[in-house]
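step=encode ok
step=design start
structure_in=
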């Protein structure tokens, strides 16, 4: 057990994020890519081979002996299915998938009483630092108009992005306003602007304004490795944890 390598399963392995996660796993010692889970059966995923076998499958069924932690960046229905599997088989899960509704969020919270879940709408260091900064400054900016602007590639399914919703939750929680997703989207105290075009990986801004000034916090993802690295660090971090719901901020605080 002392030098046991952590075996990681990747769900959504054929997606934009999945492919980068695979590439980044190969760069790290002491972890093994053990299973690739894709929606359709695949023959070839290109990777520089290692001297161990990597399983390819379309579901986690009967795979419980073959992995320790799963990293899931796929689609929410599939992620919920994987959480149920993980609860049943006592496996920990890293959730990168976004777009969950309030009921699904509750289910995730409940599941984390049985297993360890690390869930972040954004696994980059920069965005998690903005979460931290926001908490510190929001009360001083409460009288300003608030706009949350985001741009992503044309294939992104959820809108506004999970990161925008997280910004709004942090702002509303600090101002003691309603903060579940449904209420946030209905109440008009924050103006959301979402654009979908080209291949944009992820641009986010929070803009505070009044008649005298404009104050802006921005983040631009230059590549997807920032999310993949955060998710892998989370998988290593949660390997021995028993249960609980955590986010990338817990991992950053450990550094
Ligand atoms: N938290 C973060 O830091 C972060 C960063 C980037 C993206 N994301 C989120 O991560 C998710 C994936 O993003 P992406 O850009 O990689 O999307 P993507 O390119 O569409 O990849 C999603 C992959 O999941 C696969 N999939 C769907 N159902 C599946 C199933 N039942 N079993 C296995 N695989 C299944 C899809 O297969 P098909 O292609 O066959 O449909 C696709 O390959 C999205 O929710 C996105 O918002 C989060």
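sequence_out=
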């Amino acid at each position: 057990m002392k030098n046991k390598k952590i075996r990681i399963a990747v769900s959504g392995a054929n997606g934009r994020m999945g492919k980068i996660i695979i590439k980044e796993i190969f760069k790290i010692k002491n972890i093994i890519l053990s299973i690739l889970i894709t929606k359709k059966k695949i023959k070839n995923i290109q990777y520089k081979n290692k001297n161990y076998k990597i399983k390819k499958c379309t579901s986690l069924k009967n795979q419980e002996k073959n992995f320790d932690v799963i990293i899931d960046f796929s689609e929410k229905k599939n992620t919920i299915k994987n959480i149920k599997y993980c609860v049943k088989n006592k496996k920990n899960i890293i959730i990168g998938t976004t777009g969950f509704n309030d009921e699904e969020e509750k289910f995730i919270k409940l599941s984390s009483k049985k297993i360890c879940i690390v869930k972040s709408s954004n696994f980059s260091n920069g965005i998690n630092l903005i979460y931290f900064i926001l908490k510190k400054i929001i009360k001083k900016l409460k009288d300003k108009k608030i706009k949350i602007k985001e741009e992503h590639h044309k294939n992104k399914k959820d809108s506004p992005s999970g990161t925008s919703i997280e910004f709004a939750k942090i702002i509303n929680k600090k101002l003691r306003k309603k903060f579940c997703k449904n209420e946030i989207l209905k109440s008009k105290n924050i103006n959301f602007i979402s654009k979908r075009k080209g291949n944009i990986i992820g641009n986010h801004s929070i803009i505070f304004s009044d008649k005298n000034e404009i104050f802006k916090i921005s983040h631009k993802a230059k590549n997807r490795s920032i999310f993949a690295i955060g998710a892998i660090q989370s998988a290593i971090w949660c390997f021995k944890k028993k249960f609980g719901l955590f986010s990338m901020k817990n991992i950053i605080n450990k550094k």
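step=design ok
step=annotate ok -> The CA atoms of residues 40 and 58 lie 6 Å apart.
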